[in-house]
Amino acid sequence: PDDENGNDSWLCEVTDKDGTTNFEACPAMELSCSGGEMESQYPTTTPTAAPTYSVPDDVAIPDLYIVSTSKRVFGIDFDNERYKSVVEDDERLTSGQSLAFLDQYTFLASGRETGIHKYDVDGTHLGLFNDDVASVGGLLVIDEDTVAVASVNDGVYFFDYEGRTSTRYDPISSEDGAQYMTLTDDNVLLFTDTANNVRKSCLDSSCSTTTLVNWVRDKYFRGVTAIKGTSEFLVVTIIDDGDESDKMGGVDKCSVVEPDSCVSIYERSVSGDLFDPRDVVVFDSVIFMNDYSFGKITALTLGGDYVKELDIGMGDYSMSHQIAIRSGTFAPLSK
Asked: I need a surface site. Which of 128, 137, 221, 235 has the fewest CB within 10 A?
């Protein structure tokens, strides 16, 4: 970065004749080598440049996948702090919105108005899955042959793995639409709607669709995920009273059986900490949240304690909506 006088400033490693190594400020770092030619004498930087831990093409596909409004799908090797583009500049993912794995080698992804498409984990487009649902808000695999598709217009629809209307479950009507979804151990579907409520519906028809968490002034809900083995779920929150300096992002823990029983377990400033959470998943007692504006993946304990953060960087790898864990593989966390 520039120094206080507006000049380029670099930190250079200098080795004295006696072998002592020091770091000193210098106007620019001049590179030299004993053989061959250098392409450039000075280093350059770009604000949106990919970090040095970007995964080479021959590295295996990572375990956390994210779809971005920049028409991309990318995977995260969170444990080794690396990422890899899987799908790039795909017009089928214009305003990329949703992502879900059918199995270990196949995932579905969609834009808001461009239909739902099927992909191999290497990024190969395998064809259109379904384009019957207008304004797709979210995708969720329900069982071995059923996919739930949220429409921000009017509710939730169900399809089999071939993209045909499923006869297993009836569509769920919601006048405020549906966005992010999750499924509890008891086959209760939870989803956020466009009116910033969290709603629930029993897929076995043992309960009707009801509002589980009502919207509270200045508090907005985003991603939602059930905590397996419990009657609790997590929901990403943004608290915004109109003052950008006071805007907060975080995650609440709520009860599936007790309405409006949420408690905040983690909260940070959006502008001060560059933290704009969008969706959330849980694996093996670790919470993972993706960030929409600033290109981060944040890991927490189930109690809300900060564990680790991977800063992918702003630019093409920000603007991410839905995060998913690849089926059959895992996203281990460094001990």
From this structure: 128
**What percent of the chain clears pLDDT 90, i.e. is strictly above it?**
51
Cα distance between residue 165 and residue 168, in whole Å: 9
Q: What is the pLDDT of residues 252-266, one digit of tens each?
A: 999 999 999 999 999
CA distances from 100 to 13, 104, 181, 313, 332 (A): 46, 11, 11, 23, 19
166-217 per-position pLDDT tens digit = 989 999 999 999 999 999 999 999 999 999 999 999 998 888 899 999 988 8
Tell me the Ramachandran region of residue 127: left when phi exceeds 0, alpha when psi lies from -120 to 50, beta otherwise.
left
